């Protein structure tokens, strides 16, 4: 069985002064979390232990008891009478941030070393520990009680003492058959919400490797994400190679146009005020709108991807690894827009992954190398061009693709999507790469053919000699064809030359 977690969000209704208490409660929670972050920084090896042990170590370092009368960094220095479960929730929040910070720092160090080893200068700044703390309070057991469908008692810090308050709950009901996690108090604007993680059990979808190797009918939904009008192009194919369905999810131009207009407005506002106060966010409403639209769009598109996969009974979802941002040149609005479009792609992947998982579909990623340059039918290099132009050359981002080798013509993004799906299949059913496929030089986009490079005879010399030799060799050809059924198109082509 597998588990999936969703969050049930409910609004809270309470007396007006309880709002202040909830705020004081959260402020205290963050003071305690920040304190524990400092304790962890001072005792970094705590992070080498699993969370449960780390918790014990941190309590030993900070919590005064009869047995432990002189802790190294007493928590009582910053606050007295913290309930044990409030403290533990704060410790877990601090551990989460510390793990994240240290893994970022570790990656940064590795990148720096790598750059220095290569003799390059390294300008990327190191990650910094959190400057401000804005964690939501997690209510462990003991901090809440008497939960019904429409009310809950919670224990909060009022600013002067600990007190139980009764708050009303409205909104989505909790599912009956699910396992509840610890609820969280979330502030959205001036309103407080209760978020409850809910765990659902379902039949494990099974490892990708097993699905792909044991059943040729397994359906794979491959997704090509773009920053153009076709935000996502999805195709469903079976492991054996039958293409079953295609879907274009459009709307990229609209979202990008909207975003660009807002960024333009921000740029103009900034020009007017000319100085932006340090540490102060400008154009708050505009930024908020951009964020919300991006977020909503990522949710909508990921939901449509998963819906399409489900509709065609795909059990695997595959994306390509998203490459690094290629910074755009030009105006602020253009640069900012491309950057956000890239972020949104990442978010679509993340959301699709968990949405898929919740419906029993597993997600994988494949190498993005040349996915848009390779023909989905014969794996030769394709031409990519704009409508009305000759089908030759490679214009990045152009909508049409044509393959000189097998005559395939069609949409370039759909072709890329098919290639992405095949990459996953090939991971478990490896086939020989046709000789014609080779490296594309990064800087020039010029194809570096290995044939041209080493001037060796290309593949399968026996086929070439079939004319001059006797039928012994011809039989050999037939035998070889049976053996590598997947290579037939390549061989036939050579045979006709
Ligand atoms: Zn082709």
UniProtKB/TrEMBL annotation:
InterPro entries for the chain: Cas12f1-like_TNB (IPR010095)
Region (Disordered): 448-471
Keyword DNA-binding: yes
Domain called Cas12f1-like TNB: residue spans: 347-420
Pfam families associated with the record: Cas12f1-like_TNB
GO molecular function: DNA binding
Keyword DNA-binding attached: yes
Record field: compositional bias (Basic and acidic residues): 452-470
Record key words, sorted: DNA-binding
Protein name stated in the entry: Cas12f1-like TNB domain-containing protein
């Amino acid at each position: 069985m597998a588990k999936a977690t969703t969050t049930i969000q409910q609004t809270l209704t309470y007396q007006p002064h309880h709002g202040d208490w909830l705020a004081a409660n959260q402020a205290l929670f963050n003071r305690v979390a920040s304190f524990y972050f400092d304790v962890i920084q001072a005792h970094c090896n705590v992070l080498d232990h699993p969370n449960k042990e780390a918790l014990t170590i941190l309590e030993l370092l900070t919590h005064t008891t009869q047995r432990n009368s002189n802790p190294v960094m007493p928590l009582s220095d910053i606050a007295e009478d913290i309930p044990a479960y409030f403290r533990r929730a704060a410790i877990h929040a601090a551990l989460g941030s510390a793990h994240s910070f240290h893994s970022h720092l570790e990656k940064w160090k590795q990148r720096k070393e790598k750059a220095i080893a290569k003799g390059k200068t390294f300008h990327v700044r190191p990650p910094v520990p959190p400057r401000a703390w804005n964690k939501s309070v997690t209510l462990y057991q003991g901090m809440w009680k008497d939960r019904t469908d429409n009310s809950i008692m919670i224990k909060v810090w009022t600013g002067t003492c600990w007190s139980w308050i009764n708050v009303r709950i409205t909104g989505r009901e909790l599912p009956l058959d699910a396992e509840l996690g610890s609820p969280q108090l979330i502030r959205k604007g001036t309103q407080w919400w209760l978020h409850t993680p809910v765990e659902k059990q379902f039949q494990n979808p099974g490892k990708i490797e097993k699905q792909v190797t044991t059943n040729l009918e397994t359906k794979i939904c491959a997704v090509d994400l773009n920053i153009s009008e076709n935000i996502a192009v999805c195709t469903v194919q079976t492991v054996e190679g039958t293409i079953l369905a295609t879907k274009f999810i459009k709307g990229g131009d609209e979202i990008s146009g909207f975003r660009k207009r807002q960024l333009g407005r921000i740029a103009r506002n900034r020009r007017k005020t000319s100085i932006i106060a340090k540490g102060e966010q400008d154009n708050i409403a505009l930024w908020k709108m951009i964020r919300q639209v991006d977020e909503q769009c990522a949710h909508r598109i990921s939901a449509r991807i998963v819906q399409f996969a489900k509709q065609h009974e795909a059990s695997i979802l595959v994306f390509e690894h998203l490459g690094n941002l290629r910074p755009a040149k030009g105006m602020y609005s253009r640069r900012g827009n491309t950057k956000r479009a890239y972020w949104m792609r990442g978010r679509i992947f993340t959301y699709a992954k968990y949405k898929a998982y919740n419906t029993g579909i597993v997600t994988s990623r494949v190498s993005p190398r040349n996915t848009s340059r390779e023909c989905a039918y014969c794996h030769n290099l394709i031409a990519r061009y704009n409508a009305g132009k000759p089908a030759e050359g490679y214009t990045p981002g152009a909508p049409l693709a044509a393959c000189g080798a097998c005559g395939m013509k069609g949409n370039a993004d759909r072709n890329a999507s098919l290639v992405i799906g095949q990459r996953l299949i090939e991971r478990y059913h490896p086939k020989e790469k046709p000789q014609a496929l080779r490296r594309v030089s990064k800087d020039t986009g010029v194809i570096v053919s290995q044939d041209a490079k080493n001037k060796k005879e290309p593949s399968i010399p026996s086929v070439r000699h079939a004319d001059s030799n006797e039928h012994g060799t011809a039989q050999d050809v037939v035998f070889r064809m049976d053996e590598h059924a997947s290579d037939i198109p390549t061989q036939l082509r050579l045979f006709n030359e």
